[in-house]
Design goal:
The protein is mainly α and about 500 residues long. It is built from 14 helices and 6 strands. Strand 2 and strand 3 form a beta hairpin.
């Protein structure tokens, strides 16, 4: 049974933070003692996570990060230069970009053929591989736009969210598969949801695993309730986890098949269609897909951003690019601009590893090193160093781009902007955005965990208080027992006459 203790002060106010709580102290039940043990285990785990989310960077860490960013920025200046994807880039940069894009196209084509052969394709050539994958991995919404004036043959890969190689693209594919709803966003910024016709056999095939999971979940619930009501105890945690995984398995397998089908279809579209193998529109890359998804937000959907993204994807005359911006073009940009980003990554993480290993060895021998403090991954300190280094790299890159753009344009604003973007390292800019976002997200998570720890410490204080009260009660009982024994002895002695 649970013993409820009512405390006179049900809230704590510490520096403006008010924590309300109620305390239930387990008594005389082994399972409830286990609950307390699990609570303390979770509390210690939360403290470890809180430490991981805490930035412990010192002056040396910041100096190493800034130095790494500076070195990477200098490498970008001398070894990357202009991006030949832009129309106003130099002829040399354009030629280099065309050459690199040709190599990327060949690699993409070879990947499509290898992927098709892994999936059962017995023929040769890109056209046959694409045809095989299109038939093996069909998607219900592929041609649903036709005749509805919501997209076109040249833009439906961009307009249809399920054709995006992003998380939202995957979620959209799952929605199409199970709810038969396709989401499009066209160049006018209009969002359209289209109902996809249902094939009865496919619908039943999709529904059966979900029904099986639901039935297993219901049976699990009934067993748990019977165990709890008749035996007054819950299922052991390992058995509970096993049963939980069991009833999720059918639905998980069905969703994994949807993921496999989605990816297989994307591969079939990477290198164009079977009618335009190696060419065609391809699929949008991750950058353009994310921008398209952002352009759907209220306000932005009424701007000229959707039209600009459409121009970039099709490579129209209004586009500032020399070629259409699909996945292959984005991979080419990564190929040309990745060097300083990779160098910066290596410098920051290796410098963190060496400096923190030295700190650990000052207090411990090698066998007692706390490797959590040394490994340069999965901690806030490393993320903060990456934030500092990437920001430094982009500041150096932007300063170089501004100086060169001012020299070429003579300070004329439109010409300056056009020349400025040509020398910006977009891969580095993306890495910088990722580092800043990760740093901020870890900070928010840390704040929420601090509130959780504050509440947990109230419970711990109450538990300690109750243990102290139990000890006092036990001492009282022992004292009372001694007094009773003493009174009994006194009564016996009182019967004697001297």
């Amino acid at each position: 049974m649970m013993k409820n203790i009512e405390l006179k002060n049900p809230e704590i106010d510490a520096d403006g933070l008010i924590v309300q709580y109620s305390v239930s102290v387990p008594k005389e039940d082994q399972s409830e003692d286990k609950i307390i043990q699990e609570f303390y285990a979770d509390y210690r785990s939360t403290l470890d996570e809180l430490e991981r989310l805490t930035n412990n960077a010192d002056g040396l860490d910041y100096a190493l990060a800034a130095s790494s960013g500076l070195i990477a920025g200098i490498i970008d200046i001398f070894f990357v230069g202009e991006l030949g994807l832009f129309k106003n880039a130099s002829d040399e940069a354009k030629d280099r970009f065309r050459s690199d894009k040709g190599e990327i196209n060949e690699k993409v084509n070879r990947y499509i053929e290898k992927y098709a052969k892994r999936k059962g394709y017995k023929g040769e050539g890109l056209k046959g591989a694409i045809d095989f994958l299109e038939k093996k991995y069909p998607v219900a919404q592929d041609n649903v736009w036709s005749g509805k004036h919501i997209s076109s043959a040249n833009t439906h890969h961009l307009d249809d969210l399920a054709h995006h190689p992003t998380l939202l693209g995957l979620l959209s594919a799952i929605v199409v598969q199970y709810f038969r709803l396709a989401v499009f966003s066209n160049k006018q910024g209009s969002d359209v949801v289209v109902f996809v016709e249902i094939d009865k056999k496919e619908f039943i095939r999709n529904l059966i695993p979900i029904v099986i999971s639901g039935v297993l979940k219901w049976l699990t619930y009934m067993v748990e309730q019977k165990e709890k009501n008749e035996l007054d105890e819950e299922l052991p945690k390992p058995i509970h986890i096993l049963v939980e995984k069991l009833y999720l398995t059918p639905a998980a397998i069905s969703i994994l098949k949807t993921v496999d089908n989605w990816y297989g279809h994307l591969v079939s579209d990477m290198g164009g269609s079977k009618n335009t193998p190696g060419g065609g529109t391809g699929i949008p890359g991750m950058f353009l897909s994310l921008m398209k998804e952002i352009s759907m937000l209220p306000g932005l959907n009424n701007s000229n951003l959707p039209q600009l993204l459409n121009d970039l994807y099709q490579g129209t005359a209004a586009s500032p690019l020399t070629d259409k911006l699909d996945l292959r073009a984005e991979l080419t940009v990564v190929k040309e601009q990745q060097l300083p980003v990779i160098v910066n990554e290596i410098l920051v993480r290796s410098s963190y590893f060496i400096s923190h290993l030295v700190k650990e060895l000052q207090d411990n021998d090698l066998q007692n090193v706390n490797w959590k403090n040394v490994v340069p991954f999965y901690n806030r300190t490393t993320v903060r160093m990456m934030t500092v280094s990437t920001v430094t790299m982009e500041v150096v890159d932007a300063a170089d781009a501004a100086i060169r753009a001012a020299a070429k344009s003579g300070g004329f604003v439109p010409g300056f902007a056009a020349q400025f973007v040509v020398r910006i390292n977009f891969v580095g800019l993306g890495r910088c955005a990722l580092a800043c976002t990760t740093d901020a997200a870890m900070g928010l998570k840390k704040t929420s965990l601090e509130y959780a720890v504050a509440s947990a410490e109230v419970g711990i204080a109450s538990d300690v208080t109750m243990k102290a009260l139990d000890d006092i009660q036990l001492s009282k009982q022992k004292t009372q027992k001694k007094l009773d024994e003493l009174n009994a002895q006194t009564s016996e002695l009182s019967g004697f006459k001297f």
